[in-house]
Automatic annotation (TrEMBL):
Keywords assigned by UniProt, alphabetized: Membrane, Methyltransferase, Transferase, Transmembrane, Transmembrane helix
GO cellular component terms attached to this protein's record: endomembrane system
Native source organism of the sequence: Limimaricola pyoseonensis
Record's protein name: Protein-S-isoprenylcysteine O-methyltransferase Ste14
Any one GO molecular-function label of the UniProt entry: methyltransferase activity
Matches recorded under InterPro entries: Phopholipid_MeTrfase
Length: 151
């Protein structure tokens, strides 16, 4: 049986952990209420994260660049959201996780966001960047010199 490992599985795991934190350690700060500012901030982060992911996918697919990790890229996409982040889909995932923690009234779950970013960097991003560097050496060197990995 082959092991299937994709970033959304890690996001789902972290979202489940945030929900467990909210259930075990409710802060009572009212972050989860409709009137709470943090709820609205959380919603805005989720909407921004999903929007960023969709924007990135819309830039990748017409160029034949796969969205799934560990697939061979056909083009180096450097426009759209890729102008300010080399990994806008993963950045969108992190925004969704942060937003969910706020909406769940679980600010104690916010440390999951940098942990999630670290996991993605170690398990996916480094390999993806190596593949891009090998396939598009000059273009990747120029792009990575002016564009940060996350933000």
């Amino acid at each position: 049986m082959s092991k299937v490992e994709i970033p959304p599985a890690w996001l789902a795991l972290c979202l489940a952990a945030a929900w467990i934190v909210a259930w075990l350690e409710p802060t009572g700060l009212g972050f989860g209420t409709l009137a709470g500012l943090a709820w609205w901030v959380g919603l805005a982060l989720i909407v921004a994260g999903v929007g960023l992911m969709l924007w990135a996918v819309r830039r990748m697919l017409p160029r034949g660049t796969p969205v799934m990790p560990r697939r061979t890229p056909e083009a180096l996409v450097t426009d759209g959201p890729f102008r300010f982040s080399r990994n806008p889909i993963y950045l969108g995932d992190a925004l969704v996780l942060a937003g969910a923690a706020l909406m769940l009234d679980a600010p104690l779950a916010l440390p999951l966001v940098p942990l999630f970013a670290w996991i993605l960097t170690r398990r996916f991003i480094r390999g993806e960047e190596a593949a891009l560097r090998a396939r598009f050496p000059q273009a990747f060197a120029e792009w990575s010199a002016r564009t940060r990995r996350w933000l």
